[in-house]
């Protein structure tokens, strides 16, 4: 019998499957990660939550992820398209520490972003399988690499003539926290509907942006090509480079996972 699920049911089931796969402790029942918006999170986690928010915002400032902008210097279209920033707090299950994550409200950008603007390529199953088979047959060493903070290291491109820059609004409780960290932001505060807000131009890819993965792919491709890699014509996620007459293969998938193989003679 075929079962029909509503969207929120399907999301819950998918999360359960992922958490079981991640080997969450099930001896005393399943432990589900619960995310909280900043207001609820600070009430629940107290000083630990405040420290997590401070740490996340401080990292954003140190990495120059955004820069403040006067409203008078923005177009009406840019103000309309500016999305609110959300601070999410979560308790890590094993470390028992609180993690803060600043997120761009990307769902509001669906209206003007097409699939071509947001969809990034993913390695074909055939390419990944073929690479694994060749590696096993040749007895090659295989190294799996993870890129920490990969997305936040990706720059957003400057808008072309006639296009809008990407803006984000710092709102509610985060306004005062940001001003305490960077007093120069104080002069950029505006009142909208009786609430303080700060408009910032996004300089690096922030979690939640629909074009996040594509921006990372484009930059990663450029970085590899600058190192001498040549991308496969049939799979844009497979790149090759010859080093000292040995062939180095790079097959990356899921945007942030890189599999590199060296042929050792």
UniProtKB/TrEMBL annotation:
<protein>
    <submittedName>
        <fullName>Uncharacterized protein</fullName>
    </submittedName>
</protein>
């Amino acid at each position: 019998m075929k079962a029909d699920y509503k969207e929120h049911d399907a999301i819950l089931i998918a999360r359960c499957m992922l958490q079981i796969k991640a080997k969450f402790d099930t001896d005393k029942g399943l432990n589900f990660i619960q995310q909280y918006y900043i207001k609820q999170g600070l009430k629940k986690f107290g000083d630990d939550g405040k420290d997590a928010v401070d740490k996340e915002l401080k990292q954003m400032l140190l990495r120059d992820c955004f820069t403040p902008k006067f409203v008078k210097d923005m177009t009406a279209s840019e103000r309309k398209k500016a999305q609110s920033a959300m601070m999410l707090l979560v308790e890590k299950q094993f470390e028992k520490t609180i993690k803060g994550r600043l997120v761009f409200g990307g769902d509001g950008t669906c209206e003007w972003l097409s699939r071509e603007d947001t969809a990034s390529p993913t390695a074909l199953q055939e390419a990944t399988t073929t690479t694994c088979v060749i590696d096993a047959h040749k007895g090659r060493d295989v190294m799996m690499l993870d890129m920490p903070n990969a997305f936040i290291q990706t720059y957003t491109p400057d808008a072309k003539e006639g296009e809008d820059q990407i803006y984000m609004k710092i709102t509610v409780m985060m306004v005062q926290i940001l001003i305490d960290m960077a007093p120069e932001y104080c002069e950029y505060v505006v009142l909208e509907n009786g609430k303080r807000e700060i408009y910032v131009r996004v300089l690096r890819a922030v979690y939640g942006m629909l074009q996040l993965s594509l921006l990372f792919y484009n930059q990663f491709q450029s970085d590899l090509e600058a190192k001498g890699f040549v991308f496969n014509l049939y799979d844009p996620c497979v790149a090759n480079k010859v080093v000292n007459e040995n062939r180095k293969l790079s097959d990356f998938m899921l945007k942030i996972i890189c599999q590199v193989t060296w042929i050792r003679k």
